[in-house]
């Protein structure tokens, strides 16, 4: 209950304080390339329920081009404004709407797409999906430059599945073991520090 109240308070405050900057981000996206302001993608959330996550759109909009779900640095689909939004993580701020809606929390395991969740070992899957997914967590801080790491790999998909994903799951399981208001506040502070 206290965690949900903190989510509601901070996400409402964040949307209020950031209303003008978020409006400018939306305007920049519209001026940079045709298409919607938001990008929505199916992710797996609390207790395995699927939901559609919000992000500010960072790629060229082409409904016919599904493209790979794994994005690496230098992806030709990323727009000029999109590159800036990804680098600064501003594209993630749209998830404040998901927090307000209740499908996400400010802090919790980052929600994955269904095809990667299908690779989770059963025990870790149950544990990681036992809490509401979040905008940030231990793994988000550890892998802040994930796209750059993947771009350096000769096989990004394999590197993600065999190296990054297992490490992320271990960090997410650690969060579930430690989750609480003080852990969340600590992760929020560390996230803000990492973005400086």
Shape: globular
Overall structural class, as computed from helix and strand content, comes to: mainly alpha
Distance between the first and last residues' Cα: 31 Å
Main sheet summary: 2 strands, antiparallel
Q: Tell me, rounded to a whole number, the average pLDDT.
A: 92
Spatially, the strands of the biggest sheet line up as 1-2
Q: Give the ordered list of helices and strands.
A: HHEEHHEHHEHHHH
Rg: 16 Å
- Give the amount of beta strand, in percent: 5-15%
Count of domain modules: 1
Helix content estimate: 40-55%
Number of strands: 4
Number of helices: 10
Structure description:
The chain is mainly α and 196 residues long. It has one domain. Helices cover 53% and strands 10% of the residues. The protein has helices spanning 2-17, 19-32, 80-88, 96-101, 114-117, 122-128, 138-142, 146-151, 156-178, 181-194; strands spanning 38-44, 50-56, 105-107, 134-136. A two-stranded antiparallel sheet has the order 1-2. Strand 1 and strand 2 form a beta hairpin. It is globular. The mean pLDDT is 92.
């Amino acid at each position: 209950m206290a965690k949900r109240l903190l989510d509601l308070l901070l996400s409402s405050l964040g949307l209020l304080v950031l209303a003008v900057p978020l409006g400018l981000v939306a305007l920049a996206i519209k001026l940079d390339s045709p298409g919607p302001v938001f990008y929505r993608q199916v992710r797996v959330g609390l207790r395995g329920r699927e939901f559609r996550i919000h992000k500010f759109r960072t790629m060229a909009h082409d409904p016919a081009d599904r493209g790979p779900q794994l994005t690496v640095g230098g992806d030709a689909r990323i727009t000029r404004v999109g590159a800036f939004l990804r680098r600064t993580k501003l594209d993630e701020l749209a998830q404040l709407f998901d927090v307000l809606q209740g499908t996400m929390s400010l802090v919790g395991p980052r929600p994955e797409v269904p095809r990667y969740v299908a690779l989770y070992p059963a025990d870790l899957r149950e544990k990681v999906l036992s809490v509401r997914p979040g905008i940030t967590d231990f793994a988000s801080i550890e892998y802040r430059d994930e796209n750059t790491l993947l771009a350096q790999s000769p096989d990004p998909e394999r590197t993600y599945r065999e190296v990054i994903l297992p490490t992320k799951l271990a960090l997410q399981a650690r969060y579930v073991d430690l989750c609480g208001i003080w852990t969340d506040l600590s992760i929020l502070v560390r996230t803000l520090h990492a973005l400086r």
